[in-house]
Amino acid sequence: MSEAPRLPRAPSRPAxxxxxxxxxxxxxxxxxxxxxxFLAALALAGAVGAHALATRWSGGAxxxxxxxxxEPLAAATPGAAGGAAAGTRIDAVQATLAGMPGxxxxxxxxxxxxxxxxxxxxxxxxxxxxxxxxxxxPAVVQLRLQSGAxxxxxxxxxxxxxxxxxxxxxxxxxxxxxxxxxYSLQACAGLALLTVAAVAGWVVALATRAGxxxxxxxxxxxxxLGATDSYVAQRFARRTGFLALVGGIIGALVALPVLAQLSxxxxxxxxxxAAGGAAxxxxxxxxxxxVLVQVGGGGGGGxxxxxxxxxxxxxxxxxxxxxxxxxxxxGWLTAxxxxxxxxxxxx
Amino acid sequence: MIRLSDVSLxxxxxxxxxxxxxxxxxxxxxxxxLQGVSFTVPAGAFRWLLGxxxxxxxxxxxxxxxxxMPTTGEFELFGTSVQRAPRRQLVRLRRRMGVVFQDLRxxxxxxxxxxxxxxxxxxxxxxxxxxxxxxxxxNWIGLGRRLLARPGELSGGEQQxxxxxxxxxxxxxxxxxxxxxxSLDAPQALRLMELLMELNQLGSTVIVATHNDHLxxxxxxxxxxxxxxxxxxxGARAVLVP
Lengths: 347, 242
Ligand SMILES: Nc1ncnc2c1ncn2[C@@H]1O[C@H](COP(=O)(O)OP(=O)(O)O)[C@@H](O)[C@H]1O
Ligand SMILES: [Mg+2]
Known about the structure:
Chain A is an alpha+beta fold and 347 residues long. In chain A, 57% of the residues lie in helices and 7% in strands. Chain A has a 4-stranded antiparallel β-sheet with strand order 2-3-1-4. Chain B is an alpha/beta fold and 242 residues long. Chain B is built from 8 helices and 11 strands. Chain B has helices at 26-29, 57-64, 87-94, 112-122, 127-141, 156-168, 186-201, 213-218; strands at residues 2-10, 32-41, 46-50, 72-77, 80-81, 97-100, 174-178, 205-209, 223-227, 230-234, 239-240. Chain B starts with a strand and ends with a strand. Chain A: The chain crosses the membrane at residues 28-50, 183-207, 242-260, 314-335.
């Protein structure tokens, strides 16, 4: 009842007639998902930046306290806590500070560090040193408190008595406020990520539903021919998952240069050592106490120049590639759920 | 093999009829297209399903083919109680039957070959076997030269033959055919009925809905007759229901 069959071309993949390439076209979904991934990348950068700030100000070292002593070499006020031994004002202050509990480290900035600190205002390199010495500079002592420790409230008055005009700049108030700010920034970034993920899921669900409606006849047919729900859902999920993955890759790639630029701008705040800055100190150094830690310390070297990847902080470098994976997963899961929910209407 | 007792089917009752009922009026939604239908068909039997247009033949086949759940009553298929079976089990039952739909439902984007191969591929049969058996089936049914044509390029009769080929390609234990000879001329219709009879002789249970009296007279077999949703004749029991 048969002759030797003349076979048609062997299909690379069994044609099942679901026709998903046409049902879920490859333009709209990836573009929208790319836009979502871009927004997510920005939110991630915000979260990572805020996290860097938070660890920077609250991390291990504890709060930083700056003590400024004007006319450090003048004689200390006698009879103050330092006792008879105290000679100059700076010695008296140092002696008092040395007796304080809760201080992890104490460092008197030397002339070179002061020079670097002031350079942005006074200009010049090295040569300015001599001029600076001529100016009546205060001595600057930098304290690091042990974490959890705080200065006794009476300290500023006590120091002022020994060395009139001494300023105690306690960064604890700063860091508390900055911490609150960074936490709310992180919360905002988290909310933005959630919103973006929800919108992405919604877009995938809409595209999937549109695809189902377009291929309804074929879906009902393969269902009646004994296709399982998993089979149909899997076919849709592969398509939308793939398209969402592509969208995620596009979005992350577009975000890359933007984020690199942003984090270059933010580098002084988050790493302390600007990638290219030899001086280390920035105009803000005087107003943001935390930055002082870096002054004279490990000045910014060691970073490979050129590549924009180097400008990105590590957490962001890890998060960015996982963005397409996340969009792909959202696409896959949403399509699975959408298709399965729809198939439930068939017996 | 098939046992219905007191089965009724009401349309407009949610999941049973996805979609379409929205466009019907209130009266139509309450309409029972099958009422109190009871019959059995033993394994290996052949039945004609008769009745005027609109009597409910397609609706009954839809129930048998697991395209709609009975609204009330009991339906047992291959020894399984359909209403109580889990969804996975229904999939397994569907794979044991071939269906020729009244509206054929060939997928227009696929070639004739791929349309006929569809049930085999969904059953994950190895591709070489699919190639061999689909080609053999299409040759036998007279479409051997149209393997790569799209359904839209075929005549009505050729499309009908392709739909039949798809239904029988897995040699299913149960074959349900809804007016399968509607667009065929008399000799072709006879030839096709011979194919279905042959399948029946090889052991498949076959139910064919038709209003072609000529065929029914030519191929003597018990018939089930529907009238306005009720079973009014069950030839196998030779009982007339008023
Ligand atoms: N999907 C549907 N929606 C609404 N009414 C339907 C649907 N299918 C069938 N009917 C109605 O059910 C009745 C039986 O139809 P059908 O089973 O197609 O009869 P037959 O196949 O015997 O011609 C008809 O009155 C028809 O209008
Ligand atoms: Mg009909």
